[in-house]
Amino acid sequence: MARKKIALVGAGMIGGTLAHLAAMKEMGDIVLFDIAEGMPSGKALDLAQAGPVEGYDAKLKGTSDYADIAGADVVIVTAGVPRKAGMSRDDLLGINLKVMQAVGAGIKAHAPNAFVICITNPLDAMVWALREYSGLPHNMVVGMAGVLDSARFRHFLADEFDVSVEDVTAFVLGGHGDTMVPVIEYSTVAGIPVPDLIKMGWSTQEKIDAIVQRTRSGGGEIVQLLGNGSAFYAPATSAIAMAESYLKDKKRLLPCAAHLTGQYGVDDLYVGVPVVIGAGGVERVAEIALNDEAKANFQTSVDAVKELLVACKAIDGNL
Ligand code: TXD
User: Fold this and answer.
1) Using CA atoms, how far apart are residues 101 and 210, in angstroms rounded to an integer?
2) Cα of 265 to ligand 1 centre, how many Å?
3) Regarding beta strands 172-173 and 5-9, do their DSSP bridges make them parallel or antiparallel, or are they unpaired?
4) Which range marks the domain in which residue 199 is found?
5) How many angstroms separate the CA atoms of 144 and 72, rounded?
6) What are phi and psi of 192, to 5 degrees?
7) 106: which of 33, 177, 199, 225 is 20 to 30 A away, CA to CA?
8) Is the shortest distance between the CB of 235 and ligand 1 below 6 Å?
9) Which CATH number covers residue 180?
10) Structural domain contains residue 318
11) How many CB atoms lie within 10 A of CB 201?
């Protein structure tokens, strides 16, 4: 059986890391697309030369021609500009919306059957715009944010409880921003919900509340520390988990920005919810019961995403 083909549109900090991870895991042949002259080809050649050392077989190609993504099984989109210190994700909207228009046209023309994972910020708006511009089925276009946000939450919880990250699960709903909703009732250590762990004296409500807040501002914390650019190792690792669930039909239940058609009382919007990802793309939306506080926070998140879409439509009247 021929190898799968993975197209990375945007070969910057996340794109290059995506390529390295996909090659190391032998997920398929890899095309790095970017408008930066030469850079994608340089990274492709460098990664190809790492192959003999690690023992991975993958054809790697750099390009600035959308024709080279033809027939891709998975397209992961990071094209655009990242935040600089002091910028909000929403500040990127005007620039990155135009980028999504070009990327959407490229995917529509050359990889209409791909499973598309959008990473570009502001994520909840960019994934919606990318779907509009590409015209792909809604279940084949998804945004990566919740896997990253829940990974940050899981890291902080594992640190607090001093347990293996393997046994920590976390639930984060809503938009990829300050309004995201970490749901502690559904977050566990080996199935023991966090509220029970607090009762068992493993932590305190105050410490967990501080961890929830640190998760919400997790992206900004790294932007401030790096000074130039934003996180890229954990975002790339998160998107690869989603791509793997599609390519191997793993049917993982993962928090992703997915298109809702009435679930959670939301219609025709992309927002972070738990979904099953398999060979059919987004196969199912898990509609969990939320307590009043989580419901209110989720609604705040939905309202914030709606405002971003209003801004998108104000820029491009065709949306
Ligand atoms: O959880 C999440 N979704 C976020 C997303 C986590 C971290 C970063 N987040 C966003 O991903 C970030 O705010 C950016 O919007 C994207 C990509 O972040 P990255 O750190 O990879 O940015 P880089 O290194 O600047 O890479 C972007 C590349 C760069 O090489 C540009 O030349 C290229 O995008 N670019 C384009 N490629 C194709 N087509 C167009 N028009 C284009 N414009 C820029």
Assistant:
1) 39
2) 31
3) unpaired
4) 146-313
5) 18
6) -85, 115
7) 177
8) yes
9) 3.90.110.10
10) no
11) 7
The verdict on the CB of residue 36 being under 6 Å from ligand 1 is yes
- Nearest atom of ligand 1 to the alpha carbon of 238: 1
β-strands 60-63, 29-33: how paired?
Answer: parallel
Q: Are residues 112 and 151 in the same domain?
A: no
Contact 130, 118 (CB under 8 A): yes
Whether 46 and 64 map to the same domain: the answer is: yes
Tell the residue nearest (CA) to atom 1 of ligand 1: 145
Same domain? 182 vs 293: yes
Q: What is the CA radius of gyration of the chain?
A: 19
* 270 ligand 1 Cβ < 6 A: no
In sequence order, what E strands does 56-170 have? Answer: 60-63, 74-77, 115-118, 141-143, 168-169
Measured by CA distance, the residue closest to atom 32 of ligand 1 is 36
Same domain as 264, residue 131: no
Residue from 18, 31, 34 whose mutation best tests the ligand 1 pocket (most atoms within 8 A of CB): 34
- Tell me how many domains the chain contains: 2
**Same-domain check for residues 91 and 40:** yes
Do 306 and 161 share a structural domain? yes
Is the CB–ligand 1 distance for residue 66 below 6 Å?
no
Binding-site residue positions for substrate? 83, 89, 121, 152
Do 252 and 159 belong together in one domain?
yes
Q: Which residues are annotated as part of the binding site? A: 10-15, 34, 83, 89, 96, 119-121, 152
pTM: 0.97
- Looking at residue 197, its amino acid is L
Interface confidence (ipTM) of the complex: 0.99
Domain boundary among 96, 123, 144: 144
Per-residue pLDDT of the chain (319 residues; tens, 9 = 90+): 899 999 999 999 999 999 999 999 999 999 999 999 999 999 999 999 999 999 999 999 999 999 999 999 999 999 998 877 777 777 789 899 999 999 999 999 999 999 999 999 999 999 999 999 999 999 999 999 999 999 999 999 999 999 999 999 998 888 777 778 888 999 999 999 999 999 999 999 999 999 999 999 999 999 999 998 899 999 999 999 999 999 999 999 999 999 999 999 999 999 999 999 999 999 999 999 888 988 898 999 899 999 999 999 999 999 9
Last residue of a domain, one of 94, 115, 144: 144
